[in-house]
Write a structure and sequence with these properties.
The complex is a heterodimer of chains A (about 350) and B (about 220). Chain A has about 350 residues and is α/β, with parallel strands linked by helices. Chain A has two domains: about 5-255, 3-Layer(aba) Sandwich (Rossmann fold); about 255-340, no CATH class. Chain A contains 13 helices and 16 strands. Chain A has a six-stranded mixed beta sheet with strand order 6-7-8-3-9-10, sandwiched between helices. In chain A, strands 2-1-4-5 form a four-stranded antiparallel beta sheet, with helices on one face. The relative contact order of chain A is 0.12. Chain B has one domain (about 10-225): Orthogonal Bundle (MetI-like fold). In chain B, about 75% of the residues lie in helices and about 0% in strands. The chains are: A alpha/beta (about 350), B mainly alpha (about 220). The interface of A and B includes residues 80 and 86 of A. The structure holds adenosine-5'-triphosphate (ATP) and magnesium ion. Magnesium ion binds next to helix 1 of chain A. Magnesium ion binds near residues 47 and 48 of chain A.
């Protein structure tokens, strides 16, 4: 495991721009080793400013930011930045360099030889789920989602222990965004980086964060909690409002569907080759909703119930084979015991 | 000009390479050199000035203002000022043409630097480029298409402007215009026009090819 710069600490950090704007006001928080901390809040609340003070693209006016105990102001900026991965919304790829060379940017800066840097880049392209055939292309020949993956690969190239991500998935469509988020979670489960992730999308914050820092305009921290606590106990009206409606429903995302009791599938569920096809109804088939009890949450189970005409969610295993069905009362039964999970 | 044919091929054949400084071939060579040197000098001067203007925006307005004043000066006026210093030499032509090319090239360098998307510059900073390396490896390469577009304009106009130097005996193919006019003989004029045009076309084509070769990544922008 990489033993480099690790824990990030904000100690009473304030940023006042020359025009007097206070973008961040007396921010104190810890970003623990190997975790994802999400800064979330409305536009202009100082998320980007907070992030950029970590790698000194912006210098704090007051207070201190420490990386593994060391004041970042004591570290020469370029050296500091080469040890911190950075991903931004528009990917920020170099249009004049091929994908593989884009990914190898920091290794080149660190003076790796070209062959080693490129080999590392190829490895990372695969890691982030890109076809290695794209390596010799230029950025304009890639879709937005692919460019964003390259951006992530580039940030990871020199294996920095810390990763800063500023709304990295905001510019892609919702489906691609979802797959990029899943990919990030998968990568993080392998790499255990210390990640600071900025977004204005509370759902993204809740999905990705081990901890969520909700900020309000004026650059003040409103609440710092894990997502389940945030949804259960918003600190004040601002946070409650920012979380939006459906807090109850969204909390279901944090409860595994494993505990849902399944019943044998009824006769009107049409099954072919072990897989569900639809509900028999009169002369036609009605759509069905399904969930995987091993990997999905209660929210997915509830969603599956709502999608089926008869309120029954079809439980399937990892290969899509029918395990049984779950009715509403099975969900109710799963709730109380799991409510604190 | 009476029954004189527009082009007398035998005159061209005789004067193509007749050993005098006024042979068509010699004039073509002169013209090429005198057209390109100002663009080369112009680029060498415009790069640092343009970079400075892009870096310190306050410099940009005064600089372009000055350049436009120079650009609006009649070339004859410039020649006569310079004559007293540099005499009837190529330098007297090359200096004004260099100044003219700056009026195109400085804005081209500034626009080129402006064409670097902010998020690209920011991500270069974030990855740990120091300023000089960022300039050489990120900003300048991305500015190349815009700078080359300016270079094409500067080259073509320089090629056409050289002819004016014929008024002080240093105008490359421009000599043919004066010669033809004085003798009421159209062939040199036609040859002069044809060769200046051809030179401009060839130079422009060469620059287009250089651009293709240097910036394969800019194809999307070209198509757009
Ligand atoms: N260079 C600057 N000079 C003056 N004020 C600035 C500057 N950069 C940002 N600000 C101000 O500081 C505040 C915080 O800006 P910041 O970019 O950190 O917000 P953000 O939370 O990232 O917003 P968004 O979600 O819109 O990206 C805003 O009020 C912004 O207008
Ligand atoms: Mg921002």
């Amino acid at each position: 495991m990489n033993k480099g710069l690790r824990v990030i600490t904000f100690e009473g950090v304030t940023k006042r721009y020359p025009d007097g704007t206070v973008a961040v006001d007396n921010l104190s928080l810890d970003v623990p080793d190997g975790s994802v901390t999400v800064f979330v809040g409305p536009s202009g609340c100082g998320k980007t400013t907070s992030l950029r003070m970590i790698n000194r693209m912006i210098d704090a006016t007051e207070g201190r930011i420490r990386l593994d105990g060391r004041d970042v102001k004591e570290i020469e900026p370029a050296t500091l930045r080469r040890g911190i991965g950075y991903v931004i919304q528009q990917a920020g790829l170099f249009p004049h360099r091929r994908i593989v060379d884009n990914v190898a940017t920091v290794p080149y800066l660190l003076g790796w030889d070209k062959k080693k840097a490129r080999a590392r880049a190829m490895e990372l392209l695969e890691r982030v789920g890109l076809d290695v055939k794209l390596a010799e292309r230029y950025p304009f020949q890639l879709s937005g989602g692919q460019q964003q993956r390259v951006g992530v690969a580039r940030a990871l190239a020199a294996d920095p222990p810390v990763l800063l991500m500023d709304e990295p998935f905001s510019a892609v469509d919702p489906i691609v965004r979802m797959s990029l988020q899943d990919e990030l979670l998968r990568l993080q489960s392998e790499l255990h980086k210390t990640i600071v992730f900025v977004t204005h999308d509370i759902d993204e914050a809740i999905k990705l964060g081990d901890r969520v820092a909700v900020m309000r305009v004026g650059g003040r921290l409103a609440q710092l909690s894990d997502p389940a606590t945030l949804l259960r106990d918003p600190a004040d009206d601002f946070v409650r409002e920012f979380l939006g409606r459906d807090r109850g429903i969204r909390r279901l995302s944090f409860i595994p569907a494993r505990s849902v009791r399944l019943s044998p599938p009824p006769a009107d569920l049409v099954v072919e080759d072990g897989r569900p096809v639809g509900w028999q109804s009169g002369d036609g088939l009605q759509p069905y909703g399904s969930f995987d009890p091993e990997t999905d949450s209660l929210r997915a189970a509830l969603d599956a119930m709502l999608l089926s005409p008869n309120g029954l969610a079809v439980a399937v295993d990892g290969h899509g084979k029918v395990l049984g069905v779950a009715a509403r009362d099975a969900l109710d039964a799963a709730l109380p015991g799991a409510a604190d999970g | 000009m009476g029954d004189e044919p527009l082009v007398r091929w035998d005159w061209i054949a005789r004067n193509w390479d007749n050993g005098t400084p006024y042979a068509i071939k010699a004039l073509l060579e002169d013209h090429t050199v005198m057209a390109f040197l100002p663009v080369v000098f112009g680029l060498l001067i415009a790069l640092p000035l343009g970079l400075a203007c892009a870096r310190w925006r306050v410099l940009y307005q005064p600089t372009t203002g000055l350049m436009n004043v120079i650009y609006s000066l009649p070339s004859l006026a410039l020649f006569s000022i310079l004559l007293s210093v540099t005499g009837l030499t190529r330098t007297t032509v090359i200096i004004p043409l260099t100044l003219f090319s700056l009026a195109v090239l400085i804005p081209a360098v500034v626009d080129g630097m402006t064409s670097v998307p902010d998020h690209v510059r920011q991500s270069a900073v974030a990855m740990g480029f120091r300023p000089l390396r960022r300039l050489l490896q990120v900003e300048l390469p991305i500015a190349v298409p815009v700078v080359l577009a300016g270079l094409r304009v500067a080259t073509v106009s320089s090629i056409s402007l050289v002819s004016v130097g014929a008024l002080i005996g240093q105008g490359g193919l421009g000599y043919l215009f004066i010669d033809g006019w004085q003798r009421q003989f159209p062939t040199p004029i036609v040859v002069g026009i044809a060769l200046v045009t051809l030179l401009a076309l060839v130079a422009d084509l060469a620059l287009i090819l250089i651009q293709r070769w240097l910036t394969p990544w800019a194809r999307a922008r070209r198509a757009a």
